[in-house]
Amino acid sequence: MLNAIWVGFLLIAFGGALVQFYVHDQADIFARVMQAAFDSAKTGFEVALGLTGVMALWLGVMKIGERAGFLDRLARWLAPLFARLFPDVPKGHPALGSITMNMAANMLGLDNAATPIGIKAMRELQELNPDKTTASNAQILFLVLNASSVTLLPVTIFTYRAQLGAADPTDVFIPILLATYCSTLVGLLAVAFYQRLRLFDPVLLAWLGGLSLAVGALAAYFISLPAERMAGQSSLLSNFLLLAVVATFLIGAALKRVNAYEAFIEGAKEGFHTAVTIIPYLVAMLVAIGMLRASGALPAFIDLVRGAVAAWGLDTRWLDALPTMVMKPLSGSGARAMMVETMQTHGADSFAGRLASIVQGSTETTFYVLAVYFGAVGIQRVRHAVACGLLADLAGFSAAVFVAYLFFGALV
Fold first, then answer.
1. Tell me: the pLDDT tens digits for 256-312?
2. 134 touches 379 (CB < 8 A)
3. DSSP line for 260-308
4. Contact at 8 Å (CB) between 156 and 109?
5. How far is CA 241 from CA 86, 138, 248, in A?
């Protein structure tokens, strides 16, 4: 999938350059496209290199929380919920424990821990699957919940925004929280509709109702604020919550006699390794996107959609983040590069830059998650998994646009 996307981008850029040369008589178009490739490669390296410090900081903090037992505590807290969402999984089966640990790791932004635990959970669910080539109900729900991005701490997005010069890298935290909640809720409801899950179970109602009330109250509070105060209050609450998480992890580590410094160093090493590892991927995608933009192909696509949206009398600023939306279900590295390129082009604190960040945090990469998790157990027939995952994506993107206008629309 990623190979086809990357090669397609480069060939479309070449085709766009040919059109600019022959139709619009732009003799320097090939030089501009190649210069864009060189500039994008340099930008990709500089951005990835600059990530090392912030990535080391956050993964170090996350490692303290993991060592202090917060992952296990969150997993135990979630266990009653998942026991009811997966009625086909026998009580006490190892799959329930793995599912709970995977979701807890995702919520805390521990991607390195979440993926191997998720694959383990999928394999344990496969043991209960009577048809080994067709996805079971439990496997589909597990995949859709992963693809809808149940993330409470979008550390990577904060890191990119900091590197690209955002005045307050965490000011998108509350908007991301609202958008990812919408995508997860819609994904869950879509699967529940297909599988006829009993959502009226008291425990499920308590969980879903409580979370919905909390998110609704948060949204209502910000909606009640004057536009000029909304972004400031969001930034204040976001930074308070993040600092509170750090303090809680440190206090928990002290109570459990965990060496917080050593845990931080171990996590920071992982952060450094992660930042270095993404350099080739980021360079490859940024080069392709830079060439697309320089060739005129990407602007032509955006202008085409912009014209159709404007014909309906609607605001078109959100379309600058459309490339990130299109790429997100297909490729995580591609969507990340689109987000970076949007912030590079329009500014990290522009409406488009903030919206692209919110979109990036609203969902996961549906087809990547599907390929990794189902591929690990040999599933060939995915049934309603793709439809529910894409519906969750659409809900997340729609919510991202709404909250971006709500929080930042008046600032531009």
1. 898 999 999 988 887 787 667 767 876 887 788 788 888 888 788 878 888 888 888
2. yes
3. HHHHHHHHHHHHHHHHHHTHHHHHHHHHHHHHHHHHTHHHHHHHHHHHH
4. yes
5. 31, 33, 10
Q: pLDDT by residue (tens digit) across 156-194?
A: 788 788 888 888 888 888 888 889 889 999 999 999 898
Q: 93-99: which pairs have CB atoms within 8 A and are 24 or more residues apart?
A: 93/124, 93/128, 94/124, 95/121, 95/124, 95/125, 95/127, 95/128, 95/138, 98/124, 99/142
- Cβ atoms of residues 284 and 3 within 8 Å: no
Q: What angle do CA 43, 297, 360 make, to 5 degrees?
A: 55
Q: Domain locations in the chain?
A: 28-411
* Coil vs helix vs strand at 134: strand
- CB distance 199 to 208 below 8 Å: yes
CA distance to 42, 185, 217, 242, 339, per residue, from 326 (Å): 25, 21, 31, 30, 11
Give the C-alpha separation, 239 to 259, whole Å. Answer: 25
Output the DSSP codes for 56-109: HHHHHHHHHHHHTTHHHHHHHHHHHHHHHH-TTSPTT-HHHHHHHHHHHHHHTT
Residue with tokens 């997005």: 157
Specify the residue for token string 């014209």.
307
Q: Find, among 330, 333, 331, 309, the residue nearest to 319 by Cα.
A: 309
Specify the amino acid at residue 336: R
How many beta carbons lie within 10 A of that of residue 205, not counting itself?
Answer: 11
Q: Which of 139, 58, 74 is nearest to 106 (CA)?
A: 74
Q: Within a 13 Å sphere around the CA of 274, how many CA atoms are in the beta-carbon half?
A: 21
For residue 370, how far is the Cα from the chain centroid?
15
Alpha-carbon span 75 to 70, nearest angstrom: 8
* Contacts with 270 (C-beta within 8 Å, 6 or more apart), sequence order: 59, 63, 112
